[in-house]
Design goal:
Elements: E1 7-9, H1 13-18, H2 24-29, H3 36-45, H4 54-64, E2 70-72, H5 81-92, E3 96-98, H6 100-115, H7 117-122, E4 128-136, E5 143-151, E6 155-162, H8 167-177, H9 179-192, E7 201-208, E8 215-218, H10 222-245, H11 262-273
Parallel strand pairs: 2-3, 6-7
Antiparallel strand pairs: 1-4, 4-5, 5-6, 7-8
Helix pairs in contact: 4-6, 9-10
Length: 274
């Protein structure tokens, strides 16, 4: 799908991900601990589908009421040829295949989320799910895109499934997966297209994938947002420069001198002292 004018577009998830405009995920992949060469390879060849993401995608569909349909495979596992063929056919149709136990899990997760007073309010029916945004970064001229989970007149909401809804674990996940960059990226696009005011809130709703499917809603502090902004600016500059030169650097072209991690030195010295 060709996008020539900045705006909000109604498009399928597959069409959105196939578009060459730079996404938040791509911006994060341009930076350490990844590198431009890995970003370029994935963009040219596509990323391998990982079945462990199916449960999270299905939970998104039930919570947001938008996205690919869920197909329940009538089997206890994928050990039989018939079950695997049914699963693969669902992928071909653009659906999310789940085993019955997995479907029960995502239904329980959606039900638990609706019981959380703040989360239920955040996903109130006055918002719009799965909006695809396209805009041009003024400084670099890079075309950007974002697909918002949920948008209201004064807030962007993003739903994440996780292994733990403990706030300490969430802080580590934000750092590991670059969610502070996603916050800045999505907020920038929504503000650029006049969908929200500059002071609009961005709230993440994290939910554990294991019983009792606990829910924690969080917003990032000013320090996290500043770091997310600065990393995004760097990613945009790298993308612009690599696109212009056709050169997508790997980690290093020379010979690197490395040190052991600090914990390895501590472990060594502690062992000597014992």
């Amino acid at each position: 799908m060709t996008i020539t004018v900045p705006g909000v577009y109604d498009m399928t998830e597959d069409d959105y991900h196939a578009h060459p405009a730079l996404s938040s995920t791509g911006a994060r992949k341009l930076l350490s601990p990844s590198c431009p060469a890995l970003f370029h390879h994935d963009r040219e060849n596509g990323s391998e589908h990982k079945r462990e993401f199916d449960l999270g995608h299905a939970a998104h569909m039930l919570v947001l009421g938008a996205g690919p349909e869920i197909h329940v495979v009538d089997a206890g596992n994928y050990q039989t040829k018939a079950a695997r063929e049914d699963r693969d056919a669902a992928y071909t149709r653009g659906e999310i295949p789940l085993l019955p136990a997995e479907f029960d899990t995502v239904q329980a997760m959606a039900g638990k989320l609706r019981q959380h007073p703040r989360a239920a309010e955040l996903f109130a029916p006055d918002g719009v799910a799965e909006q695809s945004l396209f805009w041009v970064d003024a400084e670099t001229g890079v075309q950007c895109r974002a697909r918002l989970d949920y948008l209201t007149t004064n807030r962007i909401v993003d739903y994440k499934t996780t292994t733990s809804a403990n706030p300490g674990h969430i802080a580590k996940a934000v750092d590991n997966f670059g969610y502070h960059q996603q916050d800045d990226w999505y907020r920038t696009g929504a503000i650029e297209l006049d969908l929200v005011a500059p002071d609009a809130a961005f709230t993440f709703v994290f939910q554990s994938k294991t019983p009792p499917y606990l829910v924690t809603a969080v917003e990032l502090d000013d320090t996290a947002l500043k770091i997310g902004y600065e990393r995004n600016r760097l990613a945009l500059q790298i993308f612009r420069d690599c696109t212009e030169t056709g050169v997508w650097p790997a980690y290093s072209d020379g010979i690197e001198v490395i040190s052991l991690p600090a914990y390895a030195e501590r472990r060594h010295h502690e062992g000597i002292l014992l």
